[in-house]
Amino acid sequence: MSSDINENKAVVPSDEKDVESTAKKIPYPKSVFLIVLNEFCERFSYYGMRAILALYLQNVLNFSENTSTIIFHVFTMFDYITPLFGGMLADSVLGKFRTIFYLSAVYALGNITLSLAATPTLKLPTV
Question: Would residue 95 be called left, alpha or beta, if left means φ above 0 and alpha means ψ between -120 and 50 degrees?
């Protein structure tokens, strides 16, 4: 009976070394760090592009101020609507990790395409 009581007791670290070793035994999963890094890169890209989108539309693509404002706001609207579809896709079809991976790849390809189209030396047609 006394052995049952000892087995059910919680293990409490006795000194600071035991606390550190216990903390090292319970790390976050690797996927958490990849998701945080991915989100950081995505937000950096999004706000960087959003900051110059209206200027790019007006100065490079020669849209009027009204047209570039409309395009900017439609872009912002889609930024807030598309996560709903991504959430449905993650919950019903792909799962959260595959959805994050696949849609991040699509996002990266879109940014690469936008960057290449803005480079004058490549002679790509502007959007």
Answer: left
Banded pLDDT at 24 (limits 50, 70, 90): low
- Residue 95: inside a domain: yes
Using CA atoms, how far residue 116 sits from 8, 42, 51, in Å, is: 63, 18, 18
Give the tokens for residue 51: 């900051």
Range of the domain at 27: 2-122
DSSP classification of residue 11:
P
Instruction: Find out whether 49 and 111 touch, Cβ atoms under 8 Å.
Output: yes
The predicted model scores a pTM of 0.58
Rounded CA-CA distance 1/123 in Å is 83
> What CA–CA distance (Å, rounded) separates 22 from 15?
11
